[in-house]
Amino acid sequence: FYTYNDFIAATKYYPTFGSSGSLDVQKRELAAYFANVKQETGTLQYIREINRNNVYCDTTRGIPCPAGTKAYYGRGPLQLTWNYNYDAAGKAFNMNLLQNPDQVAQNGVLSWRSSVWFWMQNSNCHTAITQNQGFGATIRAINGGQECGKGSETQPAQNRINYYKDFCSQLGVSPGGNLGC
């Protein structure tokens, strides 16, 4: 499902993804993105969240959860969740993802695109890396409520850090500081 060609097609919508700042910053951004993808998808095994009982519907932001719609559990490389994220991504793509969130798990380009959109537009991950806030800021943005603030790094957060360091090593770049939550 997750193909290189689909990834490249999706990134064309975001020309500053992986191309902002110095070459080292660009490498760190790609390492950070793929470290988070690796954790979220179990090394690109999962298209949908394992626990699909999580509905992730929050109507306090003024975004409904239409009757008959599937739950807003995680889908895609960064496991897009919550009705408000599906609504915002759908609006950005001129699609109704609020009514049919499963489209993210059915179309490879859309799946990658939703994750790059989240990275660039909705989570501040791009800014965190390109403005030298450190990899830990991406963990907080993506899954901080579950993985951060526990007194020490949770195993998923430590996995992300280890993956990030490994990708940085493969790309020949220092991981920089502020790696943990």
TrEMBL record:
Please give the CDD domains that the UniProt record associates with this protein: chitinase_GH19
Which Pfam families does this one have? Glyco_hydro_19
The biological process GO terms on file are: cell wall macromolecule catabolic process; chitin catabolic process
Q: Where is the Glycoside hydrolase family 19 catalytic domain?
A: 1-181
Q: Name one GO molecular function term.
A: chitinase activity
Report what the protein is called: Glycoside hydrolase family 19 catalytic domain-containing protein
List the source organism.
Selaginella moellendorffii (Spikemoss)
